[in-house]
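During the first year of the project, the team set up a workflow for recording each protein of interest as an amino acid sequence followed immediately by a discrete structure-token representation. This format lets reviewers and collaborators read both layers of information side by side without switching files. As required by the reporting guidelines, we include two representative entries from the current panel. The first entry is reproduced here exactly as it appears in our internal archive.
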Amino acid sequence: MGILNTARHRIRKVAQENTIGNKINPADYDRVISYGCSFTAGDEIADHILLNKTFEETNILKENFFNQVQFYEHYKIKIPNETMYKNAWAGQVAKLLGLPIESRAYPGYSLKQTFFQLYADYKNNKIGPRDLVLVGLTGPTRLVWFEKSKRSLDSAPLHNYIDLKNLSSDGQLSIMNLFDDNILAFDYFSSLNNIQQLKNYMNIRIQPMTVSNTIGTKEFIMKDTLNPEIFRYCLNVWEDARSIILLPKVFLKDKVIDPNITLCKYKHPPLQSHIELAIQIIDRCVTE
């Protein structure tokens, strides 16, 4: 009997993992709105289109610049822009659905910053009942802070935060101890919990961008260093969010998924990865 129950449990688990409970009916929507970080804003993926060059030629050009900011400043490319976000995964989904898209994703956003933006837009009536809201999950190692001079919210990866503040080695160690994996994971999944609860107020779907921000995969970067109670909390939040996750185990194809893939110079998955993700979302999540 124990063996039979175990088998049934495994069958139910596999069925649950492969069941998409949040189908999208295009007739229910007039517009797609996207939120997230650079993966959803479309950084790099359309640079070759903007410069009228091949992908390979554009990657070689970028060898002359220290970072993405310098490259875009040199070629006077504003980010994000329409060409970028229309080619990103959410824009590709909108195109396949036959709907217009408005992107509110921005490079460098943390998940907490995305939640603040979503909630503010909801309260300010910038999200309507016939809007399909698509959110790309960013990584869990981004900190958010308020810039006193600008009175605005900003965020960056933890290592950037340390570098920007020009801290001593002792100061860097203090920051790393303050924002250890448990704090980062708890903060990240608390933001995810807030986002998933917005399903009561808008038509929202979320999509992991990489395996590193997905607690349901063995590659989740903090899994082996978390306190058991924190890890259990993360698992519970992930389970609660499943009702609005489009494809929990499908991602933008990168080096982790395909070692042979050629990334954009500044490490973003290429255009083809966005197209492939959009096609899978349409094939598996859209109803007639």
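The second entry, processed by the same pipeline in the following quarter, appears below.
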Amino acid sequence: MDEAAVRDELQRYFSERCGGVVRVRAIEPLGGGAGEKGFGYGAQLRVTLENAPVDEVVVHTSATGGFGHDTLADRAAAAVLAYETFNNLPGHVRALDVGAIRSGAWVSLGEARDFFLITEYAEGEPYFHDLERIAETNALSETDRRRADCLAAHLAEIHAARKEAPALYARRIRELFGHHECILGLLDSYDAFPLAEFTSAAELRAIERRCVDWRHRLKWFSHRLCRVHGDFHPWNVLWRPDDQFTLLDRSRGEWGDAADDVSCMTINYLFFSLQAHGQLTGPLQELWLRFWERYLAATQDEEMRRVIPPYFVWRALVLASPLWYPNLDVRVRRALFRFIQRLLEIEAFDWQNVEALLREG
């Protein structure tokens, strides 16, 4: 948008906000002088007003540039946080409004106290109902086999879209370990519960220390950055009777590592089998193997074996959690923690011999 168009839009915006005709007398970019830092998260304009409650304001706009400002959601969060906090600190410049730019028009969000999302309604049965039935009956149908094949094929198709963005990949690896919904957030959530039956504070700290080494190992695999779902588990897949399905609740970003989605789905074959049999066996083991075989045949992604262990650690911490699964048998929790410990010690994941990571001793 050129300067004249910006001036006209700012005059409309301030007039609407102030309840009268406001004139923009001058617009001046801020920053860029001698001694200024060489990097910033956006641009600032000094705007001089006439017939407004204040004579001068600074308009802050955001830009991409790493450091957690990559997506529209990141930049929205930063703007809303600034508006919510600037005026609570003595001596800080006051925030007057927060807004969005929609098709060139400036829209105020200053009165917003929360946000919402509206989606379509999707018919279907959650996939975890299938896994519950399989665990209970210890039997597979051809429909169960087809569905595992469909999910593996769909993930292969999703992951075929690639992106060259090393900084974004490093961020996603950083989030795998440090995000409040990921490994460190899960570890902290255990503090609220008695641990003696299945783990200890010392074991949790040991897991965290090993994760530091894994983070520095994984962040150099940026060539793996691909399109992901981000929460590809059986509660987020709705099956219809015609074997078509709908996905729900894509999470934590558009791009990541394919290991995220593969671990998120396959660990549930392991989880339901552990609850029913104490090990990965029978029909759920067949689905585990079938999914891996179909996915790897479609993608040829043998390198995944070298990056997937921490993704399984994250998902196992969710499944073992007393917060997320309060009624889980303590033996299953302990098996999941053995799985976690051994995952962090290996160089590559052997999906055909997972039982070695679960057994006692």
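For the second entry, the following points were noted during internal review. Strands lie at 23-29, 42-50, 56-62, 99-102, 105-108, 125-126, 226-227, 237-239, 245-247, 255-256. The two ends are 66 Å apart (CA to CA). Both points are flagged for discussion at the upcoming steering committee meeting.
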